Amino acid sequence: MKQILIALLLFPVLAFAQQIKTDHKLEKELNTLISGFKGTVGIYTMNLKTGKQAGIYTDSIFPTASIVKVPILIGLFDKIEKGELSYHQPLMYRDSIKYGGSGIMQFFKDSSATELSVLANLMMTYSDNTTSLWNQRLAGGGARINEVLEQYGFKDTRVNSRTKGREAIWKIYGWGQTTPREMATLLVKIRKGEIISKAASERMYRLMTKGYYDENALAQIPPYVQAAAKSGAVNESRSEVVLVNAPHGDYVFYVGTKNIKDQSWTPDNEAEQLIRKVSALLWKYYEPAGLR
Question: What keywords sit in the KW lines (predicted)?
């Protein structure tokens, strides 16, 4: 009985994977591109119009870093859909929840009035850490978010930080974990209106098209082309997931890295350069020369 239940839970992701065919030419180009990279690279890409895929270590687990904010957003909208939260719900910021790193809410004055929509926007636009941790709590915590992910058939994408029972795996992967295939698939499902509800998916997708951090993968895509994206970065890992609403058909890709040797925080970081190169290659591959 347990095996049947697991199979049913995994069916959406497995069915998605079975409908696509491998683009061997593109896969060869990607392998050539990453040759010599000092670290581990995982890539998954799919042309949504043709259904063809290509990838490297597509089902290996990588740290999410701030890409975990996509699952947190889903957990938040699950609560909104159930009526337990409202998108414009008034809230009050307390500086006791301040968390450093990326974002701007940490600079708000104590007792500042805000609302849930602001938290969601800051989390996805500026990758705001303070609002992200607040949203994780409002969504019911990491365990609840992981339950929602499991309901949609995702077996490896998880929130680890501040999640009971996942302390050991948090030490390995940090705040969250995913695989190239799963994170790309998650974005595709949002694009198709299949996560939470059509309306919730559309709102989440809008939030993901307004990112501040646009100097890596997004910089290789023309500014007049819409793309939904989220990036993540810690010392030993730089990653990005993008769904491009390209003129000749949508395509999605995830580039994940871990155990990277170059842990610098400059634009010429090896992993960030790789993300830019992969994005540029895919744009040129999927779009005819006349539109570049």
Answer: Signal
Q: CA-CA distance, 194 to 191, in Å (whole number)?
A: 8
DSSP single-letter state for residue 193: T
pLDDT per position in the chain (292 positions), as tens? Answer: 544 444 444 555 555 444 569 999 999 999 999 999 999 999 999 999 999 999 999 999 999 999 999 999 999 999 999 999 999 999 999 999 999 999 999 999 999 999 999 999 999 999 999 999 999 999 999 999 999 999 999 999 999 999 999 999 999 999 999 999 999 999 999 999 999 999 999 999 999 999 999 999 999 999 999 999 999 999 999 999 999 999 999 999 999 999 999 999 999 999 999 999 999 999 999 997 644 4
What residue type is 229 in one-letter code? Answer: A
What DSSP line would sit under 105-134, residue for residue? GGGSPTTEEEEHHHHHHHHHHS--HHHHHH
Whats the size of the chain, residue-wise?
A: 292
- The domain ranges of the chain are 20-285
Nearest-angstrom CA–CA distance, 161 and 44: 25
- One-letter amino acid identity for 115? E
| CA distances for 4 relative to 14, 16, 153, angstroms | 14, 18, 13
State the sign of the Cα–Cα–Cα–Cα dihedral 81, 83, 87, 91: negative
CATH class held by domain 20-285 = alpha beta
SS3 274: helix
Residues 158 and 141: their CA atoms lie apart, in Å, by 12
99 close to 73: Cβ distance less than 8 angstroms: no
Instruction: Tell me the DSSP string of 54-108.
Output: EEESTTS-EE-GGGGHHHHHHHHHHHHHTTSS-TT-EEEE-GGG---SS-SGGGS
